[in-house]
Structures are given as structure tokens and as C-alpha cells.
Design goal:
With about 700 residues, this protein is of the alpha/beta class. Helix content is about 50%, strand content about 10%. It has 30 helices and 15 strands.
């Protein structure tokens, strides 16, 4: 079926400019309205105007492709106006309204076969995928040489177009991008959207014209005063219907749900989250979807599709949404904790992304329209600039503290640079503090107060440390969300999850009132008794709430909306043993290795490596710890000879003299070996305790 600007016409009928019938006059009026509301696409319009000239360098075929809602149909309508203005007849074919066969297509486009100056505009060309070869090799070569053809669809053209040496010179392929920030804002203004809602509207819709128009229409008819705009269910449903449509199977839906939630989706991730499905098949299906892009680290949907998919899934099936989220989260946390640093940093960015999917968290992240930034190590020439930047933003005392830490822990500094120019935007510092000596207290009273604050609650023990996000300095966006601040969040989470022997983590934030909801979401509380020097000190005790429990808590809060009140100090700290107390308890536990009643009162049951809910399980967990520590003696050639000494001593009723005789050792040698064996087990148990986890 051929159409002129959506006005239905019979197959093969063409439209010429200046038609005098009533429908022609109404079509002109409709075209004028479309021209008035048309936004952007300057480069694509200029390409079409060049093609209309028919110059040797001009293309004869233009192929437009992009996801649903990106504006392909609107651009074709603009092309029709441009063609009529140039005195060219137009034949428009909407592939949604014809049967997908060569005969039906030729009937709809017949007008182009007999007019040398015709412009043929074909919309929804993805529906002609099965006959694309016929269009390329049979239909188009029959057109008069002066015909200009535009094919618009969701899918890019078959690679065989480019492989053909003739078509390669005659055609131009254009992937329609989203509107940029200026164009998107102009579209919203033209739709009458409340200017105070523009930030939220742009955050949701990005540069997708359909999403912008739907969202603007809702915002224009509803008051946004005093509220944060969020897309209605009707907007979400319309977008998904238009952009995604029907899916082949439940397995494909689940794969798309993962893709809509994760930052990047790979076969590996699909295999973990959907173990019962064919991950290779589903990944191949995802990567060919018109609204899914391929990047360095996997595939990902356009932002508006991603947000619509995730919002709909979270609303439609909260339990299954949470199960999927947890599977993705566990996969990422495992990579963060165990992968090499660069891979772990990428996984941290992906983890930070999935725990930020709640709409209310968007206010704490940089805008999509900002220029990108990247994290970098400090260069020698950066030092003076970091001190100067701190002096400008935070004052002389903070600048002196930065100078001190640059000398003491330069590896703790991470700078943020702009992608486009390498401009130094700011920096952050993650300090490792094992004990604040007098020099440190004088140089940085804020860190000293952080140490004292956590010490009043549960001081780090020997071998443990305090991790502090001390400085977050950015000249252009001091203490406010930006793309560079997103890197701060990523680094903090990386340090939280990668830390070993970390008793406490603290974040020092200016403007705590603004950041408190996010800190509460991250389970970081403000300790009592803070001075004016540290009003924005937020803390987390990793011995009271360990990584797995912490991550589970964030999972729950992801679905529950903004926190209603600030996080509180944990009611009890799980572990209280000093190194000396732990050593004594290990020796006593070895004596009672096979006596559950005696182990039931062991001080070691207070340790965080004992995972249990009741006494009997705790005793079994303690026995497992002892067994693993003793097995390490056997596994290490350096200590293998100590294994028999320890097990024979504590797993039999023999006296020490009898054990020495059984092992054919001098008693003095036996006692020396036994002392060494006990020390090895003590060291191993303390190491596991301060790390916070047992090895597999």
C-alpha cells in the first residue's frame, strides 16, 4: 500500500506537490504541523537534500536504521516534505500495511517504476527482511536511474549490500542516534512539559523521541510541583509495546530481563543467572535486537529501553526480579573480590550500576549528558595541583592534610580526568590507617577523630585497619553528583568489597544532609559524639555486618524506596577477642577438639568466622575451622612433619611422653614440634578471623 504522509492512497498512486483536492490541502496542513514540531536531524536532512541534487557524489539509496521510537518515520515524513518542495513526486510504502511478498511490495511501490524523478520512501523495512535480497537484486535495479530510494527500518542492512561493489558506491547507511541534550530539551519545550521536570524527563527518556513525547505529554497534564517526576505505568507499557513487542518464548523474556538490569550482558552472565537455558542461543538473539548495542564488555540496551524493561519487571514480578538481581549481584561480587584489579574495577562499576537502579538514587549520580571521566593514578606533576585544588575547594587545613598524605600514602590517591581532554577534574583518597601516631593526629585531625569514633565502639585489633574515604575534591562540582563523583562511588565500593583485615570503613562527606539517604542505603551510620570537624562521618563495622549480609541488606532496600530514617549503629559487634585472647582460645580448643560440650563454651564462638545460628551448629563450625587449620599443616611441605605431632597429641588419650615414643622422637624434639604446630594453627585462625572468611 502506498501512502503520502500517512494519508492512505491506492497502490501505485503517487503524490505530486501542489495537489488541489481537499485531501491534498489537508495533507499540506498536516505536513506543516510536522515541520513545526520536527527537532534535530540536521545532518540527515542535509544528506537527503544532497541526494535530491542527483550529483555524481550523491547517493541513490539511503538506508536509515535504529530502534523503535528513534524517529525514523518522522524523518521520512520530513523527507517527503523536502522532496515535494524540490518538485519531486513521492511514493511512500509502509511495510506494516502490506503482505510481505515481492508482489505486494511491487504493487505498493509501482509508482516509482515509471517516474524518473520519483522519491521512494519505505518505512518499517525490517518487515521485508525475508525478501531483502529480492529488493536489492531484483526490484531496485529495475527503477529509473533518477529515482531516489530511502529504506528505513529497525535493523541494519544485510552485509551483502556492502559486499556488492556497486551498491557500496550508490548507497549510504545511517544509524540514527538519539537526540542530543539540546535537541531533547527543545522537544520537551515544544511539547509543553513543565521546565522543572526536564531533568527527570531527560534522565528517563534520554534522547529517544518517542519516549520524550510520551513522557512530556504525561508531565504536561500532571502537576510536578513538590514531586520528582517518574514515568507512569501507561508510559512504560506503551514504550515496551512499541520498542520491544512480542517475545519468542519465556526464556527470551528472562534473557531480556537480565539484559535490562545488568550494565553489560555476556554469555557468561546468562549462564550463571539462567543455568537451565541455552546461554549461547539467547546471547546471539540479544545481540541482533535493534535496541541492543554491542560494547567492549558485552551487550546492552538503549537507555530508555533498559529503564522501561527494568521498571516493568520490578513492578510486575518483585520476587522474581529480586531473585534475578541477587544472581547477578553474587556473580559480580565474586569477581570483585577475586579477579585481578582491572577486571574487578569493571565488575565494581557493574555492581554499582545494579544497586543504583531505584529511581530515587538517580539524584546522587551524574547526568547522562555530561562528558565522561576516567580514574587514573597520580602522576608526579599532579601533586601541586591537587594541593592547590583542595585549598580552593576546602581550605588551608585540608590542603595541608592532602600534602601530608601525598607524602605518606601516594598510592591511596586516585585522580579523575575528562575523557575528551585529559583535564584534571578532581581526586579522591582512600586511606589505610593501622594506628594514628602523633604526627598523623596533628596533620589530619579528621582521620584522628574517625579513628577515635570507631575506637569508642569497637577498636580495630592487631592486624586490622580502618579504611577511610577522606577526600573527594572536585573543582567544578564540589560535593555534588557528577560523572566524576560516580567514579568516587565506584572506588569506595571497590575498596569496601576488596578489603582484607578491614575492621571499619569510614566515609567523610561534606554536606551530610544531602548524602545521608545514599549513605543509609549503603548501611553506613553516623557515630554519636561527632565534633564540628567531622559532621559528615559515616561508618560501617565489617565485623558486625559482613560483606554478604551487607549486600543482602542493599538488595532488600533496592525495592523499598528511599530510607525513612538514618542508619543506626549495629546493636552488637560480633567479635571481641584480642590476638592474645584468640591464641589462648585456640590452644584450649585444640585440647577439647573432640569434646563438643567443652567447645560449646569456647571464646572462639564469638569470632566472625563462626557462621551459625545456634549452639550445636556453632560447635560444628568451630570444629571445621580447627580441622581446616590443621589440614593446612599437612598440605604444606614446610609443616607436614608437624601434622602427626598435633593430631596424635590432641586426638588420642596418650600422654605427651607416649606420643613422643609412638612418633619415635626425643621428648625435647616432640615439645619443640608441638609448640610450632600450635603456633601455626594460631596464626592461621587469626589470619582467617581478621580477613573475615574461611577459604574453600
Amino acid at each position: 500500500m502506498a501512502t503520502e504522509d500517512s494519508a492512505s492512497r491506492s497502490a501505485g498512486e503517487t503524490s505530486r506537490p501542489h495537489a488541489s483536492d481537499r485531501r491534498g490541502r489537508f495533507a499540506d496542513k498536516l505536513a506543516t504541523a510536522r515541520m513545526h514540531n520536527f527537532v534535530g536531524r540536521e545532518a540527515e536532512v542535509e544528506l537527503f537534500r544532497h541526494a535530491l541534487t542527483g550529483e555524481p557524489s550523491a547517493p541513490s539509496v539511503i538506508v536509515l536504521h535504529g530502534p523503535g521510537g528513534i524517529g525514523k518515520s518522522a524523518l521520512l515524513q520530513r523527507y517527503a516534505v523536502e522532496a515535494r518542495s524540490a518538485g519531486r513526486p513521492v511514493v511512500s510504502v509502509d511495510s506494516r500495511t502490506i503482505y510481505p511478498s515481492p508482489t505486494a511490495f511491487e504493487q505498493a511501490a509501482a509508482g516509482a517504476l515509471f517516474q524518473d524523478d520519483c522519491v521512494l520512501l519505505v518505512d518499517s523495512f525490517e518487515r521485508c527482511r525475508d525478501m531483502e535480497e529480492w529488493v536489492r537484486n531484483r526490484f531496485l535495479p529495475r527503477l529509473p536511474t533518477g529515482v531516489l530510494v530511502v529504506l528505513a527500518g529497525r535493523l541494519p542492512p544485510d552485509p551483502l549490500w556492502r559486499a556488492d561493489l556497486g551498491w557500496r558506491d550508490l548507497m549510504r547507511v545511517v544509524s540514527l542516534p538519539e537526540l542530543d541534550g539540546r535537541q531533547a530539551a527543545a522537544l520537551l519545550a515544544g511539547q509543553g512539559a513543565d521546565p522543572t521536570a526536564h531533568r527527570e524527563l531527560l534522565s528517563f527518556a534520554g534522547g529517544n523521541p518517542l519516549a520524550l513525547r510520551l513522557a512530556a505529554e504525561v508531565a504536561a497534564h500532571g502537576s510536578t510541583e513538590g514531586t520528582v517526576w517518574a514515568p507512569s505505568r501507561a508510559v512504560i507499557e506503551q514504550l515496551l509495546s512499541h520498542l520491544v513487542g512480542e517475545l519468542p518464548s519465556p526464556a527470551h523474556r528472562r534473557a531480556l530481563e537480565v539484559c535490562g538490569h545488568a550494565l553489560d550482558t555476556t554469555e557468561d552472565l546468562l549462564r550463571v543467572v539462567l543455568p537451565e537455558e541455552d546461554a549461547s542461543h539467547l546471547f546471539a538473539w540479544l545481540r541482533q535486537l535493534p535496541f541492543v548495542r554491542s560494547g567492549r564488555f558485552g551487550v546492552y540496551p538503549h537507555d530508555v529501553v533498559r529503564d522501561a524493561l527494568d521498571s516493568d519487571f520490578r513492578w510486575r514480578d518483585p520476587d522474581r526480579y529480586m531473585a534475578m538481581h541477587r544472581a547477578v549481584r553474587r556473580h559480580l561480587v565474586e569477581r570483585i573480590r577475586n579477579a585481578p584489579e582491572q577486571e574487578a574495577l569493571r565488575a565494581t562499576g557493574a555492581y554499582n550500576y545494579i544497586i543504583s537502579r531505584a529511581p530515587w538514587i538517580r539524584k546522587f549520580h551524574g547526568s547522562r549528558d555530561e562528558g565522561g571521566a576516567y580514574e587514573d593514578a597520580v602522576r608526579p606533576e599532579d601533586a601541586a595541583e591537587l594541593v592547590r585544588m583542595t585549598r580552593e575547594v576546602e581550605g588551608e587545613q585540608s590542603a595541608a592534610a592532602v600534602e601530608y598524605w601525598l607524602a605518606k600514602q601516594p598510592e591511596s590517591f586516585k585522580v579523575h580526568r575528562r575523557f575528551s581532554s585529559n583535564e584534571l577534574l578532581g581526586f579522591m583518597v582512600w586511606l589505610r590507617v593501622e594506628w594514628p601516631d602523633a604526627d598523623m593526629r596533628r596533620a589530619d585531625p579528621v582521620v584522628a577523630e574517625a579513628w577515635d569514633a570507631v575506637g569508642d565502639m569497637a577498636r580495630p585489633r592487631h592486624g586490622e585497619h580502618l579504611g577511610v574515604a577522606r577526600f573527594m575534591v572536585h573543582r567544578h562540582t564540589p560535593h555534588r553528583p557528577s560523572r566524576a563523583w560516580d567514579l568516587v562511588h565506584m572506588r569506595i565500593i571497590f575498596e569496601l568489597l576488596r578489603a582484607r583485615h578491614c575492621a571499619w570503613s569510614c566515609v567523610v562527606m561534606a554536606d551530610p544532609g544531602f548524602w545521608e539517604p545514599l549513605m543509609t542505603y549503603m548501611d553506613m551510620f553516623q557515630p554519636p559524639g561527632r565534633s564540628d570537624r567531622t559532621p559528615g562521618l559515616f561508618c560501617h563495622d565489617w565485623r558486625a555486618v559482613r560483606v554478604d549480609e551487607w549486600a543482602e541488606g542493599i538488595d532488600v532496600r533496592l525495592l523499598s524506596g528511599p530510607p525513612g530514617k538514618a542508619a543506626e549503629e549495629p546493636k552488637a559487634v560480633t567479635v571481641t577477642l584480642t590476638r592474645e585472647e584468640c591464641d589462648a582460645a585456640v590452644r584450649e580448643a585444640l585440647r577439647n577438639w573432640l569434646d563438643p560440650d567443652a567447645l560449646a563454651v569456647s571464646p572462639l564462638l564469638k569470632c566472625r568466622i563462626i557462621e551459625a545460628d545456634d549452639g550445636s551448629q556453632a560447635v560444628a563450625a568451630l570444629q571445621e575451622v580447627l580441622n581446616k587449620a590443621v589440614e593446612r599443616l599437612q598440605a604444606n611441605p614446610r609443616t607436614r612433619h608437624l601434622h602427626a605431632v598435633l593430631t596424635t597429641t590432641f586426638q588420642t588419650s596418650l600422654t605427651q611422653e607416649a606420643v613422643a615414643r609412638r612418633l619415635n622422637m626425643a621428648f625435647s624434639t616432640y615439645r619443640r614440634y608441638l609448640t610450632r604446630a600450635i603456633d601455626e594453627v594460631r596464626e592461621r585462625v587469626w589470619l582467617w578471623e581478621t580477613q573475615g572468611h574461611l577459604p574453600d
